[in-house]
Amino acid sequence: MCGIIAYIGQKPAHEILIRGLHRLEYRGYDSSGLTVMDKNKINTLRAVGKVDNLSEKVNDSWESKPAKEATSGIAHTRWATHGLPTEENAHPHTDNSGKISLVHNGIIENYQQLRSKLESKGYKFYSETDSEVLCNLISELYNEDIEEAVVQALKMVEGTYGIALVCSDEPERLIAARRGSPIIIGLGEKETIVASDVSALVQYTKQVIYLNDNDIVTINRDEGVTEIFDITKTHVSREVEEVDWDLGSAEKGGYEHYMLKEIFEQPEAITNTFRGRLNLDEGTAILSGLNLTPKKIVEINRVLIFACGTSLHASMLGQYFFEDYAQLPSNVNHAAEFRYRNPIVEKHTLALAISQSGETADTLAAVREAKRKGADVWGLCNVVGSTIARETERGIYLHAGPEISVASTKAFTTQVMVLLQMALKFGRCHRLSRSEGVKLCQHIESTPELIREMLKEAENIKKIALKYKDYDNCFYIGRGYMYPVALEGALKLKEISYIHAEGYHAAELKHGPIALLEESVPVIALANDVDGKDKIIGNVEECKARKSPVILTATKGDEEVKSLSDDIIWIPEASAPIAAILTTVALQLYSYYVAVARGCDVDQPRNLAKSVTVE
Ligand code: M6R
Question: Do 444 and 509 have their domain in common?
Answer without folding.
Answer: no
